[in-house]
Amino acid sequence: MLPSTLHVRSLLILLLISISSAMSLTRYSKPVPSGAIVAETREQLNQITFENQYTLLHEEDGGYMLKHTEDGTVVAVAGDALCAELDKVFADLDAREAAEDNQEDQQGGDSSTGGYGNGESRRTANDIQADDRLNACAHRRCFNSVICITYRDCHICSSRNVCI
After folding, report:
1. Between these two residues, 4 and 124, which has the higher pLDDT value?
2. Positive or negative: CA dihedral 93, 77, 30, 22
3. SS3 labels along the chain
4. How far apart, in whole angstroms, are the C-alpha atoms of residue 155 and residue 164?
5. What is the pLDDT of residues 39-75, one digit of tens each?
6. Which residues contact 101 (CB under 8 A, 6 or more apart)?
7. What is the spatial distance between Cα 38 and Cα 78, in angstroms, rounded to a whole number?
8. Closest Cα partner for 66 from 90, 89, 33, 96?
9. Which of 90, 126, 147, 149 sees the fewest Cβ atoms within 10 Å?
10. Among 81, 28, 52, 42, which Cα is nearest to 164's?
């Protein structure tokens, strides 16, 4: 008795999905925990984070793992393509921070302009609070919303203390 064409197609699709998932996790040296979702895109990772608000992104085992804050269970892992994208984001952040540090070292500061060597005036506390409300990270557990790049649909990276 031959299996139905629909049954064979379903098995083939399942096999292809399994193979593509396994192939997209070559960066990890240990097996991905069972039950962990594989996120291939930032949109998928953002959706998983939205559904699991109490999670942190950890740079671990050659890739990135989204873990619950309370018990550390792995909710999701980043696929290879997403890992490469996140690596680039972190490299850009590191370069930006280094450039800002270098620029601050070169400019120094001028006490006559309130410490802003380029002639800017000091912002008032009300200005800062208003900006903070507008630029606050949408993730309610974000502990670094001041430097959050997107301010929407982001998640927390605990290893770098940067909301990406």
Report:
1. 4
2. negative
3. CCCCHHHHHHHHHHHHHHHHHHHCCCCCCCCCCCCCEEECCHHHHHHHHHHCCCEEEEEECCEEEEEECCCCCEEEEECHHHHHHHHHHHHHHHHHHHHHHHHHHHHCCCHHHCCCCCCCCCCCHHHHHHHHHHCCCCCCCCCCHHHCCCCCCCCEECCCCEEC
4. 6
5. 999 889 988 988 888 888 888 899 999 998 889 999 9
6. none
7. 6
8. 33
9. 126
10. 42
Its pTM stands at 0.57
Judge whether residue 37 has pLDDT over 80: yes
Residue linked to tokens 């290893």: 159
CA angle 102, 88, 98 (to 5 degrees): 10
Residue type, 157: C
Asked whether the beta carbons of 118 and 107 are under 8 A apart, the reply is yes
- Report d(CA 49, CA 76) in Å as an integer: 9
Q: Would you say 36 and 74 are in contact if contact means Cβ atoms under 8 Å apart?
A: yes
Strand arrangement, sheet containing 156-157: 37-39, 74-78, 63-68, 55-60, 156-157, 162-163
